[in-house]
Amino acid sequence: MPLPTVAIIGRPNVGKSTLFNRLVGKRIALVDDQPGVTRDRREGEANLLGLEFRVMDTAGYEDDDAATLPGRMRAQTEAAVRESDVSLFMIDARAGITPLDEEIARWLRSTDRPVVLMANKAEGKAGETGIIEAMALGLGDPIPFSAEHGEGVVDLFEALLPHVERDEEEAAEDSEAPDAPLKLAIVGRPNAGKSTLVNKLLREDRMITGPEAGITRDSISVDWQWPDAEGNLRAVRLIDTAGMRKRAKIEEKLEKLSVMDAMRAVDFAEVVVLLLDATRGLEVQDLKIADRVLQEGRALVIALNKWDVAENASSLFNGVKGALDEGLAQVKGVPLLTVSAETGKGLDMLMQVAFETRDAWSRRVSTGQLNRWFERAIETNPPPAPGGKRIKPRYVTQNKSRPPSFVLFGTRVDLLPVSYQRYLINGLRKEFDFGAVPVRLTLRASKNPFDRDKHT
């Protein structure tokens, strides 16, 4: 599905190109104090707090004969509005409303396209008069904004959201296809059996193995197909990595490079299997590796290898599980499986869980679903009022997946204590079945000086 389109409209030199550059994240449009720098329509892919759309920068709208250059530029602007899903009409709050602004507003009201009114250059008090004047244009309350400094971004996001948000089905069409190869990295301490595991999965001696620790030095990537329980062949890109020892024990330059290469493999992967040696149990280094994987935002699965020769299996499993829950407090319930790379036992279950974990890691939730849950969560457990100041959460939206990441908007939400943020994250996990994949929550407090809540 094509991205929704937003056209930036306004008279010359009100800051349209500056806003365009901010939305696309690059200095694509030329910006100068001289009016009329932009002549042709310029397009780019914008990302506003995770909201994705196509944005068009247009020439300054001028009242000239259609045969003149300014007249032809105006025709391009009118075409941009016809092609857009919503128009951003920008005025200069410091200069106030001009007759040309009023003419553009009359024209926009006559179109069948929704309009969001923006009062640019509104930083400080110099723009207050222009903001008040803009209310008379008949296009709703203006958004105080500074394209130069990025003030008012949250309010712009809220104004655009109803017009450009794609539903969950459309977003899924543009996300990575579910039949794309699973990027699966195998990590762990030296001699945990990583290469043996990869060879068993491939059913060939692809990797050199042996009792000596540290045989694998480079991260080796192998394309493979796993036959699932239904007989379907699922594409996998397997990545075998060098063993990760404690930093104090990494002495040789070559081994340091090998560990760095292993960490790059983690960055590349979607799901990371941390392989533990069941004959040695869980060590501090294992927890450090697991924490690093989660910090990088990757989905984690933990496998206890050499289970066929493990002693006191039940108590060992429960002990490792308890230590993981305590040592990885930020993510409870990371999948813990038992396998034998030597015999192949448990490997099909490992692959099945890896695919299921990627599904959760890639999951998107619509804003409507999120906010129905959010309203219930806030009603069940209202946010605190630190120092007597009321915190007013407005709503939450998912700005990206892989890993699932959410943005919470509202008044003073930046004052929410960590415990309440954890309450919301745990609620997201449970409600939308994210399991133990990393879930991130960003707080966006409104800095709009004209916010109705500012005196509450």
Automatic annotation (TrEMBL):
Belongs to the TRAFAC class TrmE-Era-EngA-EngB-Septin-like GTPase superfamily. EngA (Der) GTPase family. GTP 1 binds at residues 10-17, 57-61, 120-123. NCBIfam families: GTPase_EngA, small_GTP. It comes from Sphingomonas psychrotolerans. This is GTPase Der. The gene is der. Signal peptide: none annotated. GTPase that plays an essential role in the late steps of ribosome biogenesis. One of its GO terms (molecular function) is GTP binding.
